[in-house]
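As promised in the previous annual report, we have extended the structural survey to additional targets. Below is the entry for histidine kinase.
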Amino acid sequence: MEKLLAQKKMTPRWYERFPRAVPVGIFGLTMAVTLLSVFAIETAEDRRQTAMTAQTAQAVASGLERRSNANAAYLRSSAALFATQQMVEAPLFRTFIRQLHLDGRYVGSDGIGWAMKVYRDDIPTVEAIMRAGGTPDFAVHPQPEEARPFVVPVMFLEPDTDRNRRAIGFDMFSESMRRAAMKAAERTGQPTASGAVVLQQEGSPAGAPGFLVYMPVYTLGSEQAGRALRGFVYSPFNAQRFLESSIDVNHLGGAGVRLSDEDSAGRRVMAVIAPEQGSGQFVRRVIDIAGHRFILEIEAPATPMLSTMSVMSLLFGLLVATLLLVLARLLTQQAVEDRIALAWFEQQSSIRNSLTRELNHRVKNTLANVLSIISLTRRRATSLAEFADSLENRIRALSATHDLLTQSDWGTTPVEAVVRAELAPYAQDSQRHLQIGGPDVELAPNDALSLGLAIHELATNAAKYGALSVESGRVSVNWAMAGENVARIDWIERNGPPVDPTKRRKRGFGTELIEKIVAHELRNPVDLRFDPEGVHCSLLIPVRRRGDFSIRQGRS
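The corresponding structure token record, generated without further manual editing, is:
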């Protein structure tokens, strides 16, 4: 078996050589597959969003063209009626428009109007007729240029509102965009829309843009004589109202709409429905409104950075990758730990004899301390009972320190733990006044045993004769580093019974134990003084590194 283990150690497997890289590689590969899946999902989601935006664009374009076609039908019917009349008068015009039942339903337009072709010489006569017919402030404006033989002023515009009255008398042939549309309508004989203009109804050149749709009206005549243009029936449109009335905003799904006119001067935005949250992605459509090409742009609504399906896939992939990472890590870690265990077993086998020698040495030291305690106790005892009690208490002190060393696995032991263990019987009495303090200092096992014996003897002496024998007594145990590798511990008694000068010269068991055994074990002299105000003892204890006294090492 040992031979097989040795062979396994000599030929480590590939995953044992890379215990960290293997789990990380598996995790990275799994996450790469997950991210590729998320990319595919997001690509499909983008295509779906583009298709939905294109569908919205088609629906909006259809709505706009449907509204314009409905208006064109009204204009055709109006042109057909007016062509049969010798004169389009106000009563006839208003009666016909009202019979169309368009009140409140002008499909986004400002109504239907009549613009008559008037030759330059007939302008005064037409103005007089219009003023006599109920429009007292009618006047053709602006005045035509000398080279232009006729004008096309607005004669009537229904519904008759304050807004529409602003356009009455305006010569539409005087403005280039309107003039081009009227000429195209005269040439084709079909409803024709102008480009982007500011309607006279806006009352300001800086008003909201719109457009107009013209339908020519001819005089009836023979094919040989040809047809003469009498004027135009037309509809003015405010672009924003036309756009809003042609589509259902609730069906846009948060998308934005922009209607523009594009000519040689560039693109001009005429109407906008802002998106709930813009994405910057547009679908562009060219729509035909009464023979004029307008640009329709649909802005797709903003979408989350990742779709729900992508988030779920990412979380699932992360979970799977993490599980594989943990599993691979456990397997490689187990292989590494097996190898460490083999090395540890070999180390334990090599230090078994050293550990036995260490145990023998420490047992001998402990027995030597016990024999010294017995010898000194026997010489100072006056009776068997006194001998037994003194010996028992000192052995218990030695045992208490042994318990601390056992808890630390015979490693370093804090000075504070040794002091508190020896003074525990006195600290439980509320009438005892103890003060213990100092920095964190760790002691070697043998040094901790020696300190425990010294503290026990000092405490026993103080309880019998010193500061711990009266309620007013004070005992302070303080320690500090006296050098790089030496700690100084001071035992100071105050407010106890006065020390008898004759007893200061009498050396008891505690004095000999501290000055001989403890000083010998600590390899430093002990300063023990019986001052009149109380006992003062100073001990110097070496502070050694663990490697100086420990031969057992943990697993690396």
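The chain has two domains: 84-301, 357-548. The chain has 14 helices and 19 strands. These points will be discussed at the next consortium meeting with the crystallography subgroup.
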